[in-house]
Design goal:
It is a single chain. The protein has about 500 residues and is α+β, with helices and mostly antiparallel strands. The chain has three domains: about 20-60; about 70-185, Glutaredoxin; about 190-460, Class I glutamine amidotransferase (GATase) domain (Rossmann fold), CATH 3.40.50.880. The protein is built from twelve helices and 24 strands. The protein is globular, with a radius of gyration of 35 Å.
């Protein structure tokens, strides 16, 4: 019996082995089949991808800009400035074949206005005339704008700038191209003079402001009235900044004559902290019936100041003002240690022929401090309540039926300078770049020079140059490499576990 049972067990074992082998064969075939299907699917996906790309190139579909600031698209201000362009402009792209972003951006201008055309020159040696005329080399990559007899060269270095405090890279491609077109097509650029000779700030204290004025197709120079023996006839706008000492009588008389001839003035005046006697300068202000006080405005409303800095007051310019008429939104000025503008009574203003448009003011809960030795941000018994705290105004003075003089005044000059200001321990910037300070100043100039089409909000395109620490570098490498490897190992373990259960 035992022998028969053993024989039966051996027979059953052989049969089971056969069954296992029979089952293994289809399993291998199925595995090979799955690999083939996977490879086929990958091949189909790759073919579809290639076909889609080929089709997109053949159809020449337009690019779409999904960035919040629309940094790869022409903005509305440029569209407004160039929509009435009626002169032929040729943009020569020299050695720009590797800079596809700039080439594509230039092509948007061609689509914007039929008077704009391009010529792409990949081999600069084929144009020895341009090489000789502009002193170019074979390696130079430039754009040359031509309109009739006027030309302008824009290099690849004009497409960006750097912030020396934050080390941000700031893209200026649109500004460079748009202003180059305006430069070669505009017949008369406004001539702007910055008064010098008695200034509290150095002549190079407004470099950002002046650079932006040049970018917006203005001619900018400094002016010493005494050495120049007067104000030049080509002066379209006189910019007066905070004085450290009084004007000479000859200078004040020259400015008053300029006003009587319909001259335009942008006045940026900090409070007279040191109580310097300025009778000749006050004669100029008397033409418009205004005075700049000696104290500073201190805010108490948190929504009207930069957090924790009550002397950094936020003033909102309403959207229907002369300097925001095309903006369609409220914009803010951040004035630092601002004074207040005092106006003559209504009868005197009428006698002077002056009308006033209020632009900016502090809140109704701000107070006025003339004793600047007090360091407390809390209101003291010496401080004054403010019935009005106007910090900016546009004044129009009627000289006669055919002549008028315009003045925009801000009781602050610091906000227009390149002065470094510390907001927090980690954040330092320039006063000119706070809030909408730059837009407000540039729009004021555009209004005073009768270029209302230039009153706008300018595109901000900051790219942060981010540098990681050693620890951050290790974390990034871990995320890039360790996490995918970990997920693969987990997948293998789970697969093995499920296989064994079967």
């Amino acid at each position: 019996m035992k022998k028969e049972k053993n024989k039966q067990k051996k027979a059953d074992k052989k049969e089971n082995n056969k069954l296992v082998k029979v089952k293994d064969k289809p399993s291998v075939l199925k595995w090979l089949g799955n690999i083939f299907v996977t490879i086929a699917l990958f091949a189909i996906i790759i073919i579809i991808y290639i076909l889609i790309n080929w089709g997109a190139q053949e159809l020449n579909l337009p690019d779409y800009d999904y960035t919040e600031e629309q940094i790869y698209s022409i903005t509305q201000p440029t569209i407004d400035k160039l929509q009435n362009l009626d002169k032929d402009v040729t943009i020569n792209l020299l050695n720009m074949e590797n800079n596809t972003a700039v080439v594509e951006f230039v092509n948007q201008y061609v689509e914007l206005n039929s008077h704009i055309t391009t010529k792409q020159i990949d081999d600069i040696t084929t144009r020895p005339d341009l090489v000789s005329l502009y002193g170019l080399t074979e390696d130079d990559s430039v754009l040359i704008f031509e309109c009739e007899d006027t030309t302008k060269v824009v290099t690849q270095y004009d497409f960006y700038t750097y912030d020396s405090i934050t080390y941000d890279t700031i893209d200026t491609t649109e500004e460079a191209i748009t202003n180059a077109i305006l430069d070669v097509t505009i017949e008369d650029k406004p001539k702007i003079y910055f008064l010098t000779g008695h200034n509290n700030y150095s002549d190079d204290g407004f470099l950002y402001f002046q650079a932006d004025l040049l970018q917006e197709s203005n001619d900018v120079e400094t002016l010493n009235i005494i050495t120049n023996t007067g104000i030049p006839e080509d002066c379209d706008l006189l910019v007066i900044t905070t004085l450290a000492e009084d004007l000479e009588e000859f200078e004040s008389n020259a400015i008053i004559e300029y006003i009587q001839n319909g001259g335009e003035i942008l006045l940026l005046a900090d409070p007279n902290y040191n109580n310097v006697e300025l009778p000749n300068f006050q004669k100029v202000l008397d033409e418009y019936g205004i005075t700049i006080g000696n104290g500073i405005i201190i805010e108490t409303e948190t929504n009207s100041m930069i957090a924790g800095l009550p002397n950094f007051i936020i003033n909102t310019v309403t959207e229907n003002s002369s300097i925001t008429q095309n903006v369609g939104m409220n914009i803010n000025a951040c004035l630092i240690n601002a004074g207040k503008i005092e106006f003559a009574d209504s009868d005197k203003m009428e006698e002077l022929g002056v009308s006033v448009e209020y632009l900016t003011s502090a809140s109704s809960n701000a107070f006025y401090r003339t004793n600047l030795e007090v360091t407390s941000t809390e209101k003291t018994d010496e401080d004054e309540d403010l019935d009005s705290a106007y910090t900016g105004a546009a004044l129009n003075k009627k000289i006669d039926d055919d002549t008028e003089s315009k003045l925009i005044v801000f009781s602050n000059c610091l906000f227009a300078t390149d002065s470094e200001v510390t907001i927090t321990q980690e954040y330092t910037t320039y006063a000119y770049l706070l809030s909408n300070n730059s837009d407000i100043l540039l729009n004021s100039v555009s209004y005073l020079t009768e270029r209302e089409d230039n009153i706008t909000i300018r595109k901000s395109m900051d790219y942060v140059a981010y540098t990681v620490t050693e620890e951050q570098h290790r974390i990034i490498l871990t995320i890039i490499f360790a996490v995918p490897i970990f997920m693969i190992l987990v997948g293998i373990i789970v697969w093995q576990a499920r296989r064994r259960k079967k």
